[in-house]
Amino acid sequence: MDAIADRAFENVPSGNVLKEQDETPSLLTVILDLNPLQWRSLKADITLKDISKSLLVMLNSHLSLNSSNTVAVLSSNSYKSGAQWIYPKPLETDDTETAKQRSHAHLVNPTMYRGFRIINDSVLEEISSILDMEPDRFQDIGKRGKDDSKGKVKGTLVGALSMALTYINRVQNTNDSTSIKSRILIVSTSDDLTLPYISMMNCTFAAQKMKVSIDVCKLGTDSTFLQQACDSTNGVYMYINHPSGLIQYLTTALFIDPSLRPIMVLPTNTNIDFRASCFLTSKIIDIGFVCSVCLCILSIVPHDEKCPICHSQFDPKIVKTLKAKPRTLPLIRKKRKLDSGAGASEETDTSRAATPAK
Amino acid sequence: MDSDEEFGTSLSPEELSDDAIEVADDASTPVAGISNRTRKKTVKKVNQVELMGQSGGYSWEDEYRRSWDIVQEDESGSIESIVSGLVEAHKKRLLKNVTPFQRGIIRTLVLVLDFSKVMSEKDLRPSRASLMLSYAIDFINEFFDQNPISQIGVVIMRNGLAQLVSEVSGNPFDHIEALNKLKRVEPQGDPSLQNALEMSRGLLMNTPTHSTREVLIVFGALFTSDPGDIQKTITHLQKTAIRVRIIGLTAHVQICNEICEKTNFGDSKNSYWVILNEKHFKELFMDAVIPLAVAKSTTEKFTLVKMGFPSRVANFGTPTFCSCHSKLIYGGYICPSCKANICLLPTICPCCNLMLILSTHLARSYHHLFPLKLFSEIPVSKAYESTNCFGCQKSFPSKGVNSELVHEAEKHRQTADFITSSRYRCEDCRKDFCIDCDVFVHEVLHNCPGCEADNLRLDEE
Ligand SMILES: [Zn+2]
Ligand SMILES: [Zn+2]
Ligand SMILES: [Zn+2]
Ligand SMILES: [Zn+2]
Ligand SMILES: [Zn+2]
């Protein structure tokens, strides 16, 4: 499969992989999807409390691998303030901060190793403060007269991903003396409909350029966009069948450093749906027409011969050739007429692809 | 016939100093969305006054100012704000014009490299030829990264001839391999623009109508030794709608100017450049990565292109030969129309001639079509709303600048330039970003983290 792997990752030296690995510190960025509606639908299988526990175990073990390893955590949420940082959090001189700390102090054992405690504390604090604010936000949306039925809820995963990439960009640029590896883990519950396609792809390509792997731990419904993101950044995509065993997934398959992946057999699936969907009919197609100006994908030639997205007028000559039915030799036709069944079905097949819908 | 009419170096002294280059850049109005400019100029209008130094004369008549003269303490005796301003001013931010243009996204480009004797000169380090080759490799990588469904061919000018180094194809590895082999070739003889252009014309002749036809020439010499009348070649180029762009390494040459002017609808400003230094050379090279705006004057017709979106099969169980290279592979992509097995995308199916791509390849070009709006610099004030960069969480210099300091600084014009708020705001989501994030977001990411993180925007639309 090497030949199909993306070129950005092809020139990873494979010979002395093991030697180089040991000492380079690595930054693990976790993006946690905190969409309350989705979590509600998963209630039977896993709760947010379970997943934060498992995540903390993973973060702590990442930190213990190398003393210079660092972590960052972001949340994405469709209702509260969208995507936001959980750790590291900018310093706030707020009185409420200390109050919050006290109320959750019992969640973390005070005698825990300090490096772990600070992270565990602030992650739990932030998650619960986000959840505390959730009811307010619902009301807020209600007051503004905007509810889910009206507009599609926009997922903010891309926002969190963009923020994570800017952070990684900063870390990589400031630490130029000691190189640092970075990867991103997305724990996602939302489905594709909430993801803006173009922005998601922009993030994927940026990550690919920066050689940052995107791993996905998917709960709920499967996601094609995230599969594509993983595939092009050499990441692991895992659909979690048994959410109760999440910690197992997180500390095994999703824990392997990207540089070790060429020599590991990963449980990632390689059959990714790369087919495109038509911009007009949203039908999934494998042969389509692409506007040479705006690159929109169409399953049919629009009948006004104008691009529906950018309104460019297409060259009538070329449209004509595209619309033309395949020419068949008359001799063959005569033969076909005899056994009409096979011939007719074949012809409708080809004409369907080329004629515009009414 | 030699057409070696050359202009001497037409650089005026102002263009020799680094600062003044920006001024000169800006004076030419951005045409066709491919001109670059610096952030500074989008904020402060350049007029004749700015060209003048403190003494009222031109800036080169001024006394030389040492950088430590610019640095002055603020009221608390700290020089931090000025120093950070200086650092930011040095991060020259090249920004694209963001007005969406119709661009020719599907491109065919012939890269013509000068390999005549002058290229062995060492005014560029380590030598002109090797610097050109290493930039050309970077260019090809970047080109295919951003234009995955485009094609390139490489031609060199050597010994008065044009030699084909690498056939027109969409595979970057072939080109890079060919360029690496060129590293061992000594530059020799005279260059011939006519031969190179005729060869490029031959290569571009059969490209489909939906593709652009472009030639990019790196020209080190000041003359061209041609076998015939280059004017005829230019007419042929015009007829076949080939657009030629030239990067000169030494000085303006009239014939280059003419070629560019005639093949770019009278616009030689955005198609013929002469480099100022190594960095500028690289920038010019990288500019060619961005697809050309479709010229309004052309009667070019837009087309639909039939494309196949093959699905990938991980493993057939046994290795099979791919139909493109006859290589043994496990799995591969299956052409949707003829079911041939393909190992590498994007490509044109060797069996049925259908263009095969992944939808992700198309997505790579979308940012050319939907560019991200520029952020605006927040004016210097006493207090700011934001304390941290919204993207990377870097804390901004918190202290607002005292108006007295600004006033004081304005007396020394240059110092005032270096006092910044360090905050750059997206007008849509009103989030503030640091300069590093601003550059990163516009050059690599093409998303505004603030807009994407905001959950209510979609509802409001
Ligand atoms: Zn279009
Ligand atoms: Zn092949
Ligand atoms: Zn085929
Ligand atoms: Zn920043
Ligand atoms: Zn924004």
TrEMBL record, chain A:
Signal peptide: none annotated. It is found in: Nucleus. One of its GO terms (biological process) is nucleotide-excision repair. InterPro entries: TFIIH_Tfb4/GTF2H3 (IPR004600), vWFA_dom_sf (IPR036465). Keywords: DNA damage, DNA repair, Metal-binding, Nucleus, Transcription, Transcription regulation, Zinc, Zinc-finger. It comes from the Eukaryota. One of its GO terms (molecular function) is zinc ion binding. GO terms for cellular component: nucleotide-excision repair factor 3 complex; transcription factor TFIIH core complex; transcription factor TFIIH holo complex. Residues 333-358 are annotated as: Disordered. Component of the 7-subunit TFIIH core complex composed of XPB/SSL2, XPD/RAD3, SSL1, TFB1, TFB2, TFB4 and TFB5, which is active in NER. The core complex associates with the 3-subunit CTD-kinase module TFIIK composed of CCL1, KIN28 and TFB3 to form the 10-subunit holoenzyme (holo-TFIIH) active in transcription. Belongs to the TFB4 family. Component of the general transcription and DNA repair factor IIH (TFIIH) core complex, which is involved in general and transcription-coupled nucleotide excision repair (NER) of damaged DNA and, when complexed to TFIIK, in RNA transcription by RNA polymerase II. In NER, TFIIH acts by opening DNA around the lesion to allow the excision of the damaged oligonucleotide and its replacement by a new DNA fragment. In transcription, TFIIH has an essential role in transcription initiation. This is General transcription and DNA repair factor IIH subunit TFB4. It comes from Kuraishia capsulata CBS 1993.
From TrEMBL, chain B:
Its main location: nucleus. SMART domains: C1_4. Residues 15-25 have a biased composition (Acidic residues). GO terms for cellular component: nucleotide-excision repair factor 3 complex; transcription factor TFIIH core complex; transcription factor TFIIH holo complex. InterPro entries: C1-like_sf, Ssl1-like, TFIIH_C1-like_dom, TFIIH_SSL1/p44, VWF_A, vWFA_dom_sf, Znf_C2H2_type, Znf_RING/FYVE/PHD. One of its GO terms (molecular function) is zinc ion binding. Residues 1-35 are annotated as: Disordered. A zinc finger (C4-type) spans 335-352. It is found in: Nucleus. Keywords: DNA damage, DNA repair, Metal-binding, Nucleus, Transcription, Transcription regulation, Zinc, Zinc-finger. GO terms for biological process: nucleotide-excision repair; regulation of transcription by RNA polymerase II; transcription initiation at RNA polymerase II promoter. Residues 108-289 form the VWFA domain. Pfam families: C1_4, Ssl1. Component of the general transcription and DNA repair factor IIH (TFIIH) core complex, which is involved in general and transcription-coupled nucleotide excision repair (NER) of damaged DNA and, when complexed to TFIIK, in RNA transcription by RNA polymerase II. In NER, TFIIH acts by opening DNA around the lesion to allow the excision of the damaged oligonucleotide and its replacement by a new DNA fragment. In transcription, TFIIH has an essential role in transcription initiation. Belongs to the GTF2H2 family. This is General transcription and DNA repair factor IIH. It comes from Kuraishia capsulata CBS 1993.
